[in-house]
Specification:
The chain is mainly α. It has two domains: 2-63; 74-203, Rossmann fold. Helix content is 43%, strand content 9%. The strands form two sheets. It has a three-stranded parallel sheet. It has a two-stranded parallel sheet with strand order 1-2. The longest helix has 19 residues, at 45-63.
């Protein structure tokens, strides 16, 4: 959010551009478009390019200045499913542009866990990104995948909706702006406080 704010300020001269933007579960491109429209900037390809050329530079700088880290249980959860036999394909489904996601996850040693994914570069609409991620997952495993063979993990109602858009099972985690009870209203298949609260084997991802 801070990198978005500084990008709007340094590139377009807009202070407090992010004050009314709701980031949770959104795509980077949709957020930039909303910021443009709120402040009278034409949402042209050129202006999007100007924003996304500057944004990763500021993001990388801030990632090394501000506190942060992986959410609870992420490292152990990934290790567990990677040790399964057979190991499931692990992809990254995110509203971030690919470069932004790479910078964030590399900062905390997580990027290499995700050999494929779907990003805001692929589409501005979250559900369409889910479709792209599914296609890339099918390419990774070499076969078509049924919805119930896929588990999407997220911490917002929009994450739950995008998982359901491809027929996937959804694990909701209360590590963001929404509590477990708030997420449960949207009927994910599982809802837990964080990834320490669930065994991957409960999801059908690990058989080890």
């Amino acid at each position: 959010m801070k990198a978005f704010e500084l990008t709007f300020s340094s590139v377009f001269g807009i202070a407090d551009a992010t004050a009314t933007l709701k980031f949770a579960g959104r795509t980077d491109t949709s957020l930039v478009r909303e910021g443009f429209l709120l402040h009278g900037i034409e949402p042209t390809g050129e202006n999007f390019d100007r924003f996304f050329e500057r944004y990763p530079v500021l993001l990388e700088k801030l990632l090394h200045e501000l506190p942060g880290g992986p959410c609870e249980g992420v490292q152990d959860f990934l290790q567990c499913i990677q040790q399964a036999n057979p190991s499931p394909a692990i992809g990254l489904l995110t509203g971030n542009i690919r470069r932004g996601a790479e910078l964030k996850l590399k900062r905390f040693g997580l990027w290499d866990h995700f050999p494929f994914g779907g990003f805001a570069d692929d589409n501005e609409i979250r559900d369409c990104i889910a479709g792209v991620a599914k296609q890339r997952g099918e390419h990774a495993v070499g076969k078509s995948l049924k919805g119930d063979e896929i588990v999407v993990i997220g911490d917002t109602p929009l994450d739950i909706a995008c998982g359901k858009s491809i027929g996937a099972k959804v694990l909701a985690v209360g590590t963001g702006n929404y509590t477990v009870d708030e997420l449960a209203v949207f009927k994910p298949d599982w809802a837990v406080e964080n990834l320490e609260r669930i065994d991957p084997r409960e999801l059908g991802l690990s058989h080890g």
